[in-house]
Amino acid sequence: MQWGNLSGIAEGDLIRGLQEGDVLCFEKIYGKYSSRLYSAAYNILRDKQVCEDIVQELFIDLWTKREKLDIQNLSSYLYISVRNKVLMVIRSGKVVLELEVVEMLVSEYDADNGVLQKELQANLEKGISELPEKCREVFVLSRKEQLSHKEIASLLNISVKTVENQLTIALRRLRASMADFLLLVVSLLPLFM
Fold it and tell me: Using CA atoms, how far apart are residues 134 and 137, in angstroms rounded to an integer?
């Protein structure tokens, strides 16, 4: 397929051109979608290098498997592919999701009925209740009462370093206890459309 100006090409023609090995169609697809796909991945993972790798792998796969792919809607195909790659990264443990990011995403996309927000809160509360006593106390004072490390140390008569260590332990345990739930939440959210 020979194209002059690629700016007005219909999506179906881009897909056909890609499947026929037209490099210009592939470049057009890359130019149109790569930054959006990166943003979608970064919205969740917050890791520049990992997100760049995800987008690169996605386009390498798109090119190498182009003849075998059955793409009806290019945009949907690409966003579903990047979501799947993000989920694989999360599942592999290469990137640890921050609880604050998941809470923000849940509240942003679940404003209508609050079901995911309630589930997230319930799982978080369960995880907090399972923390060792001192760890739980430090976490609650830090995250819920919004006290500084110095204020917590003074209140509990412990060192600031102990506060930092207890928070590190609490966050590590909460991430581990909520990993499956967070993966489910991320997979259910319409984050990429």
Answer: 5
